[in-house]
Amino acid sequence: MRRPLGYLEIIDDNIIYLAADGNILVIYDDFSKKEIKSNMKSFFNNEIDLKKINLLLSFALKPIRDLLYHEGFLYVVIFHKELFDNDVRFSTAVLKGKFNYDYIDFEYFFKPDSYVSKKIDSTHTGGRIVVNQQREFYLAVPDYRHADKVNNLNNIFGKILKIKSIDNYEIISIGHRNPQGLYYDTENDLLIESEHGPSAGDEINLIKFGNNYGWPTTSVGIHDTYVKYHDHIKQGFEPPIYSPLLYALGPSQIIKISKKSKFNFKGQYILASLSGHDKYVGNHLYLFKIINKKKAIISEKIFVNDRVRDIIYDDRRDRIILTLEDQQAIGIITK
Fold first, then answer.
1. What is the model's pTM?
2. Beta 137-141 vs 159-165: how paired, if at all?
């Protein structure tokens, strides 16, 4: 299995590609490329033998979960593992390194004392990071298939966090299952999240401080063990602004196209997807608008016939760049 593939950023008009195993490439305009050296893999604790643990190794051995460039630094979200008292424990951490085309020296930016140690699902180890206008960093953390931890305010799992220091955070929202997309809309001051739900329960959520988004007791989707209710509002939870209801699209990253763009869908959001098998379900880019900060309307979908793990919008050059997981390629949409 070739998942996950990697994550993208734009620096100096160049594409920065961070493979999920930690290798960093800069890709120039002529599509020549150069490897950027770093100490990133020293944080992966690769000496720990995960074969003895019931994990989907393609996800567990490729620990990168997101990439962000901000004010000269790279921020990297990782699926973190470490050995503690002869037990392997897992969590989400963030690395930070001053960007340099030759070598990047990373250190921990966020490493809380919050972890799980047994029976995790490595496909439930997504994570995304964004920064707002006030230079506040927000981190989406999945439940690691530990639904019992989601409503416990003493851990990070199943929550959106504001990072305050290397081991300190503020909980912004709870009730999340497996976030795979996070976008901060500077123009409208909106924090938008996408997550994988149980069967037919995928969601786009508008994140508001202090809200509970329902997981694990309430979901539009179906889960025999946890989900008892399907009406968020009736149960006192914040409902998704969009859920596909009848099928799983495997939502991933979200971007927004500039209103000045030459694309005919300028000013709209785009949601990438990881699931699907034909031109009707999944494997699309979903164009959507948010109406009155309450509801997302899908206006169009673009069939790409591949899993899109990451997508970015290059505002200066008005182009969309995306990872194509099955093809193991980077795609560029210019018009």
1. 0.96
2. antiparallel
Contact 159, 178 (CB under 8 A): no
Residues in the chain: 335
The token pair that represents 8 in the structure block = 């993208």
pLDDT tens by residue, 278-308: 666 668 999 999 999 999 999 999 999 999 9
Distance CA 55, CA 321 (A): 31
Backbone angles phi, psi at 297, to 5 degrees: -115, 120
Q: What is the pLDDT of residues 155-196, one digit of tens each?
A: 999 999 999 999 999 999 999 999 999 999 999 999 999 999
Cβ burial, residue 218 (10 Å; 0-12/13-18/19+) = buried
CA-to-CA separations, 270 to 69, 182, 312, in angstroms, rounded: 20, 12, 10
Burial of 279 (0-12, 13-18, 19+ CB in 10 A): exposed
What whole-number distance in Å separates Cα of residue 165 and Cα of residue 213?
25
